[in-house]
């Protein structure tokens, strides 16, 4: 049992590292140290930061070992230096950073071999600290993927195209009113902000059966949506003007239609794929134009987890089974969202599709603790962000690994952000 857990943990650490290597070996050293956008770190910062967090938690805290490199903690503390300042820091170079993360990993694996995965020590029960570090690396891998998308130059990443639509999916789904269990006490690697499970009474509402597509979003643009303050919140309109938003990030005119540059390749925007790279304010404006609104976080989670037959909350829309490729577009297996209808096996019992994977979905909710929240194991993961200028995003994107994605998983970002793989779906009250 414990041995199985150790093997699972080791395999998950290895899977994360293979992905990190793929993202960092794909470019040359000059590209690794360059800042591709002032809102992103140089890739080489993410690389060593991943190793530094692993050192802090697995080598020093869990393992009680001597520091590998105490002198660099400050450089890789995300709270000490804003992203725009990171390229000017005396960072480890590419070769040093690779050697460092390798050394840390060797020690972390040695700790994994020796430490009892002790149910009495919360940090070790179910291998929690290791799971946290796996998720941390996978989250930075998604961030590095977003950096790749902002990088100029010839394409360096490859992947199979996403699967085609297999079923027609349109319209909206009625989610019945009543309480459901939001959050979790049982998901072994759930982060502190996903806990505890608690009842939430959600009145009946309609939610889109699929995320809003590029085709529908283009209609909003064609209808003058970006020129009409009626659809925008006051703050949203101020931002639209100041940032001169006219279309999703990376879109460009292509005759009467639209093209986008995706990981260095320019091509027409697929009308049936979920729109991606929109900020919260754009999502909010589209929803108003469509006579709808964004779902709240509780509505999104109820749509994704509530099983009307039993009244219980599932781990995923399709059930409790760990995501397989047939369920959802996750894990950077493809470099774009898949068309609506591509994942019938991942639909919820009420027929809501593609809640997991494809695009992170903006909700109308700010990032707040659940009732009964307890910091675990450190304040800087969630606590310091509660109540800030953030909106919650749900469901994960094509760039999210399954280790960092589930029905309870909460992501958050500033409402102006759109370098992330963000889209949305709409909702409305049932009465
Ligand atoms: C939860 C995705 C907002 O990337 O800033 C990474 C995750 N926390 N390192 C982020 C995280 C610390 C976090 N998000
Ligand atoms: Fe981090």
From TrEMBL:
Binding site for Fe cation: 49, 136, 140
Species of origin: Actinoplanes nipponensis
Domain of life: Bacteria
Enzyme class name: oxidoreductase
Domain Sulfatase-modifying factor enzyme-like: 170-428
Protein name listed in UniProt: Hercynine oxygenase
Family: Belongs to the EgtB family.
Molecular function per GO: gamma-glutamyl hercynylcysteine sulfoxide synthase activity; iron ion binding
């Amino acid at each position: 049992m414990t041995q199985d857990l150790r093997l699972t943990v080791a395999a998950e650490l290895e899977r994360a590292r293979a992905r990190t290597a793929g993202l960092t070996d794909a470019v040359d050293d000059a590209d690794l140290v360059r800042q591709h956008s002032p809102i992103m770190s140089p890739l080489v910062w993410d690389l060593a930061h991943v190793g530094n967090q692993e050192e802090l938690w697995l080598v020093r805290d869990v393992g009680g070992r001597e520091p590998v490199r105490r002198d660099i903690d400050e450089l890789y503390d995300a709270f000490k230096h804003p992203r725009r300042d990171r390229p000017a820091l005396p960072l480890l170079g590419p070769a040093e950073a690779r050697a460092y993360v390798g050394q840390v990993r060797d020690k972390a694996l040695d700790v994994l071999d020796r430490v009892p995965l002790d149910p009495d020590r919360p940090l070790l029960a179910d291998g929690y600290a290791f799971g946290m570090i796996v998720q941390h690396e996978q989250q930075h891998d998604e961030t590095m993927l977003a950096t790749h998308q902002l990088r100029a130059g010839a394409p360096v990443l490859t992947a199979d195209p996403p699967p085609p639509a297999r079923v027609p999916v349109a319209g909206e789904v009625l989610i019945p009113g009543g309480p459901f269990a939001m959050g979790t006490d049982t998901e072994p690697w759930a982060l502190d902000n996903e806990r505890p499970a608690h009842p939430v009474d959600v009145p009946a509402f309609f939610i889109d059966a699929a995320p809003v597509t590029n085709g529908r979003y283009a209609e909003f643009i064609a209808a003058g949506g970006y020129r009409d303050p009626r659809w925008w919140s006051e703050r949203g309109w101020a931002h639209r003007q100041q940032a001169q938003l006219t279309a999703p990030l990376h879109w460009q005119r292509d005759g009467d239609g639209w093209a986008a540059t995706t990981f260095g390749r320019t091509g027409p925007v697929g009308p049936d794929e979920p729109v991606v790279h929109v900020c919260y304010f754009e999502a909010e404006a589209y929803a108003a134009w469509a006579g709808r609104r964004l779902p709240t976080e509780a509505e999104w989670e109820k749509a994704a987890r509530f099983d009307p037959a039993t009244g219980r909350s599932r781990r995923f829309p399709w059930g409790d089974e760990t995501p397989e490729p047939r369920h959802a577009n996750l894990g950077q297996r493809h470099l774009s969202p898949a068309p609506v209808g591509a994942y019938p096996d991942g639909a919820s019992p009420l027929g809501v599709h593609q809640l997991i994977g494809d695009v992170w979905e903006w909700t109308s909710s700010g990032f707040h603790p659940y009732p009964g929240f307890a910091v675990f194991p450190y304040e800087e993961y969630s606590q310091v962000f509660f109540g800030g200028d953030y909106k919650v995003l749900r469901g994960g994107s094509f760039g999210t690994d399954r280790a960092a994605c589930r029905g309870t998983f909460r992501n958050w970002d500033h409402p102006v952000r759109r370098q992330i793989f963000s889209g949305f779906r709409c909702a409305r009250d049932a009465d």
